[in-house]
């Protein structure tokens, strides 16, 4: 079904996440004439993308009507400063949708009238290949139609999950928001380890690139990750030798638990 909103969409900040969302919306058929980008430092690539689609993009775009959705996709510290500027743009049916890490519904609403509909969401960068996951929470002012609009926008780039308990957004940010970085670090380390073990950089890279189907297998299989791992591991074989290093004394588990706890703590700090 073609993606449609009840009015214009104002995208504030078209960087990595804002840009990924925008590409997904256009792929789902959102009319580019209804999209407006507010970004004073748009990258050359995003500027060219917007121009190619005839999307108005500047530091203060003029909208033909109050926006149906204002999507805040700037860094969390910028979001804080920007909210007072957003207030005059909010119309009667506008929903403010923020993806800024650690910015709570309460902090987002602080500079807006009490009646404004606000949604806080945490997407992730696999959105750029249409395979993201976004976890969202709505404030009490969000109507069923506004929720549908936010859901449609976020579903354009992957799965969407709505929660009622905002405290969940901190561990969500630590696991699914930041999570792709841990996987990419693993890929970086594996590539380097291959070079250290005698592969040429080209071969190490080639092997790393071929590993992404493991992610597809995990996504499509009915088996859990532990079973899929065991399926790779022949007793006394090569994988078992490697896993002994990673899993002995629960090394990998402890390291990842510490990493995720640090990210969740940072998310809570950003909220205060
Ligand atoms: N990158 C990621 O993996 C994820 C990021 N997020 C959140 O998304 C938000 C954006 O992150 P990224 O896209 O990674 O950052 P980014 O740095 O790629 O994009 C931010 C954009 O905001 C623009 N900008 C800066 N000041 C502005 C202003 N005053 N008005 C309008 N636009 C302005 C910049 O020019 C840039 O294009 C952050 O709040 C982050 O917490 C959420 C989930 C995942
Ligand atoms: O690192 C960050 O703060 C953001 C939130 C999740 C992914 N990137």
Automatic annotation (TrEMBL):
UniProt enzyme class = oxidoreductase
Give the EC number(s) under which this enzyme is classified.
1.5.1.2
In which compartments does the protein localize? Answer: Cytoplasm
Q: Kindly list the GO CC terms recorded for this protein.
A: cytoplasm
Q: Name one Pfam family in it.
A: F420_oxidored
Question: Which stretches are transmembrane?
Answer: none
* MF GO annotations: pyrroline-5-carboxylate reductase activity
GO biological process per UniProt:
L-proline biosynthetic process
What would be the name of the gene that encodes this protein? proC
What is the annotated role of this protein in its UniProt record? Catalyzes the reduction of 1-pyrroline-5-carboxylate (PCA) to L-proline.
Keywords of this entry:
Amino-acid biosynthesis, Cytoplasm, NADP, Oxidoreductase, Proline biosynthesis
Put simply, this protein is called Pyrroline-5-carboxylate reductase
Which reaction(s) does its UniProt entry say it catalyses? L-proline + NAD(+) = (S)-1-pyrroline-5-carboxylate + NADH + 2 H(+); L-proline + NADP(+) = (S)-1-pyrroline-5-carboxylate + NADPH + 2 H(+)
Q: Repeat among the record's keywords?
A: no
Residue ranges annotated for the Pyrroline-5-carboxylate reductase catalytic N-terminal domain, each copy included: 11-102
Say which domain of life the source belongs to.
Answer: Bacteria
In the record, the note on similarity to other proteins reads: Belongs to the pyrroline-5-carboxylate reductase family.
Chief location: cytoplasm
According to UniProt, this protein's pathway is: Amino-acid biosynthesis; L-proline biosynthesis; L-proline from L-glutamate 5-semialdehyde: step 1/1
Q: Which residues bind NADP(+)?
A: 12-17, 73-76
Q: Which residues form the Pyrroline-5-carboxylate reductase dimerisation domain?
A: 166-270
């Amino acid at each position: 079904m073609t993606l449609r909103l009840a009015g214009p969409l104002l995208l504030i900040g078209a960087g990595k996440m804002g840009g990924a969302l925008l590409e997904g919306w256009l792929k789902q058929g959102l009319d580019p004439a209804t999209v407006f980008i507010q970004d004073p430092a748009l990258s050359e690539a995003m500027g060219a993308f917007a121009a190619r689609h005839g999307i108005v993009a500047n530091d203060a775009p003029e909208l033909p009507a109050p926006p149906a959705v204002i999507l805040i996709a700037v860094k969390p510290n910028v979001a804080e400063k920007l909210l007072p500027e957003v207030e005059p743009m909010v119309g009667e049916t506008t929903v403010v949708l923020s993806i800024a890490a650690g910015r709570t519904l309460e902090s987002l609403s602080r500079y807006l009238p009490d009646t404004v509909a606000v949604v806080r969401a945490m997407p992730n960068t696999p959105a750029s290949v249409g395979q993201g996951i976004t976890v969202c929470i709505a404030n009490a002012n969000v109507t069923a139609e506004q929720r549908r609009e936010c859901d449609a926008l976020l579903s354009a780039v992957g799965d969407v999950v709505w929660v009622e308990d905002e405290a969940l957004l901190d561990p969500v940010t630590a696991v699914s928001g930041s999570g792709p970085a841990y996987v990419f670090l693993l890929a970086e380390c594996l590539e380097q380890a291959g070079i250290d073990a005698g592969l040429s950089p080209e071969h190490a890279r080639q092997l790393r690139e071929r590993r992404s189907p493991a992610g597809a297998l995990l996504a499509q299989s009915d088996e859990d990750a532990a079973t899929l791992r065991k399926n790779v591991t022949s007793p006394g074989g090569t994988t078992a030798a490697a896993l002994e290093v990673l899993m002995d004394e629960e090394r990998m588990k402890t390291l990842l638990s510490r990493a995720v706890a640090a990210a969740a703590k940072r998310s809570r700090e950003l909220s205060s």
